[in-house]
Write a structure and sequence with these properties.
The protein has helices at about 10-15, 25-40, 60-70, 85-90, 105-110, 115-130, 155-165, 185-195, 215-225, 250-260, 270-285, 290-299; strands at about 5-10, 45-50, 75-80, 95-100, 135-140, 145, 150, 170-175, 205-210, 230. The two termini are about 30 Å apart. It has an eight-stranded parallel sheet with strand order 1-10-9-8-5-4-3-2. A two-stranded antiparallel ribbon has the order 6-7. With about 300 residues, it is of the alpha/beta class. Helix 2 packs antiparallel against helix 11 (about 270-285), helix 7 crosses helix 8 and helix 8 (about 185-195) packs parallel to helix 9 (about 215-225). It binds 3-hydroxy-3-methylglutaryl-coenzyme A and magnesium ion (MG). Magnesium ion binds next to loops. This is Hydroxymethylglutaryl-CoA lyase. Pfam families: HMGL-like. Keywords: Lyase, Metal-binding.
């Protein structure tokens, strides 16, 4: 049976913008967030407190969080790779933070300059520090299905990382298909393995990128497995700058179209969301990759 409600975690302001070369002014990022919330988005990934050398686009994280002033009911997550990131986030009153650990060694090195073990060791004090401050932590596992340098990833490896993040105190884990290579049977196998490792299914979110056009099929497989939280990006904008060949996240419009078609509530007004995506894409000078956002504009 499918759930009646799904939480859509909108990552456009973070995953969608992080690889943009031309700096998007802070006030425009804030406007993007506010418009998303006005369209019914209630869970939002705002920015990252990472090294500005690594992700120059998000160097304005403090300023953005201070300027935002979203309603308290909106869940706002920020990425914090290390204690330095956590301190910066807490100093501006972050509500929820996220750590990220790769399931594969090559991506751990390229995305964090570390190893899988090193990334986990860096994440652990961030999670406990956040917890002491009363702030929940989302734990991302990247490259859960395939890695552009290492090929397919063993489900047991992913389950080990996910279970370790939960044991460290994360309140949820998000399974990243960073390069979009997953297919539905593989998704089911990974979720089953993680549940077998002791992680409750309601603590699992799925974060699909749509590089190979499989993201919606993968969402459907995850829904059947009991997952009720999905990450997506308005319009399908974005990619990870450190993952070779990765395109944008699953588009929020495509996700919401399918969920609403299945009779599943999201709280999102699809037409309003489309307007936001076209507005943002126009500002940064990109076409909107989302099929649904394109079709609705023409309809
Ligand atoms: P490093 O270069 O190995 O570490 O980076 P470092 O300790 O030598 O620091 C380098 C410089 O950054 C130093 O400054 C530090 O002070 C500074 P310098 O002395 O050179 O002037 N620094 C910081 N500054 C501000 N905030 C901080 C911070 N930490 C260090 N928090 C580090 C290590 C972890 C910092 C770096 O690798 C990094 O920032 N990585 C983040 C990369 C990133 O954001 N990737 C994209 C997000 S993950 C993703 O997209 C996947 C996801 O979507 C899920 C999926 O799709 O799978 C989540
Ligand atoms: Mg991502």
């Amino acid at each position: 049976v499918l759930p009646d409600r799904v939480r859509v975690h909108e990552v456009g302001p973070r995953d969608g913008l992080q690889a943009e070369d031309a700096f998007v002014p802070t006030s425009m990022k804030a406007e993007f967030c506010r418009r998303l919330v006005a369209a019914g988005v209630s869970s939002l990934e705002v920015t990252s407190f990472v090294s500005p050398r690594w992700v120059p686009q998000l160097a304005d994280a403090e300023e953005l969080v201070r300027e935002l002033a979203l309603p308290g009911a909106v869940r706002q997550v920020v990425l914090t790779p290390n204690l330095r990131g956590l301190e910066r986030a807490l100093a501006v009153g972050a509500h929820e933070v996220a750590v990220f650990v790769s399931a594969t060694e090559t991506f751990a090195r390229r995305n964090l300059g570390s190893t899988v073990r090193g990334a986990m060791d860096a994440a652990r004090p961030v999670v406990s520090g956040a917890r002491s401050a009363g702030v929940p932590t989302r734990g991302y596992v990247s490259m859960c299905f395939g890695d552009p340098w290492e090929g397919p990833v063993e489900p047991a490896l992913v389950a080990g990382v996910a279970a370790e993040l939960m044991a460290a105190g994360c309140t949820s884990v998000s399974l990243g298909d960073t390069i979009g290579v997953a297919t539905p049977g593989h998704v089911r196998a990974v979720i089953d393995e993680i549940v077998r490792a002791g992680v409750p299914v309601d603590a699992i979110a799925c974060h699909f990128h749509d590089t190979y056009g499989q993201a919606l099929a993968n969402v459907h497989a995850a829904l059947i497995a009991g997952v009720t939280e999905f990450d997506s990006s308005a319009g399908g904008l974005g990619r990870c700058p450190y993952a070779k060949g990765a395109t944008g996240n699953l588009a929020t419009e495509d996700l919401v179209w399918m969920l609403h078609g299945l009779g599943i509530h999201t709280g999102i007004d699809l037409a309003a969301l489309c307007d936001v995506s076209h507005w943002m894409a126009g500002r940064i000078g990109h076409p909107v990759p989302s099929r649904v956002a394109t079709a609705l504009l023409a309809a």
